[in-house]
Amino acid sequence: MGVPTGRVDTILLIHGLWMTSRSWENWADRYAARGFRVLTPAWPGMDREVEELRADPTPIAGQRIAAITDHYARIIRDLPRPPIIMGHSIGGLITQLLVDRKLGAAGVGVHTAPVRGVLRLPLSTLRSGFSILHSPVNRHRAVPFTAEDFRYAFGNTMSQQESDAAWERYAVPGAGHVLFEMAFANLNPESAAEIDKKRDERAPLLLTAGGADHVVPPSVVSANASLYRGSTAITGYRCNPGRSHFALGEPGWEEEADFALEWAVEAANEFSPTVVGQAPGRR
Asked: Which residues belong to the signal peptide in this entry (predicted)?
């Protein structure tokens, strides 16, 4: 299991849509027990408890991809050393955007939402976001995420009881504008989800998928990883068979957490320009 070194000692965890920083509690505790400094800042304005955001989702409705990315960029630039950046789902997209800005020692997109350029849009992805995408008026709203919504999008590998318990603890309404930005990124040349896919001087990046993930199936994450083929920077891809979108909490989450950390620590200490200066090319 990776442990802190003199060069990489901090991990920044970014939550995704329908979630808060609470969603990282298992991974954060596990990494902290290894001696890492673990930071779990919320999206701007969402540093509140799940129950409070359900009662008043106003801070969720105002979210935008560019503002979220800028928020985390400021946090990273204020740190004494570049951190490992990990993001789940749309947090994985934010991770890719931050790495594209040459931030971080390494990046991991956990069951990541795609950047602009991925054309695959499976039916399960559309169904997962249907509660928001079915009506244009939801673009400017925070849309409730019901236990039934959660069961299909996150809890499909768990029992009904396990899924309902996870929904009760973690789920908040979804930011309509953020999901609309994602869904129509390929139609918008000014999309906030655009990156330089050929950038060589960025930190190593790992993108992971779940074999049973309804929100971002492996075909989507694999297509995202393939966009980086023109870059000499390190890009990894891993599919975890039988895993749902609830990578942060479904039974067996420890294996994914450990692999992500081990990959990131090794890649950062060997290949990250922000850590070793002149990083060698693709191995």
From this structure: none
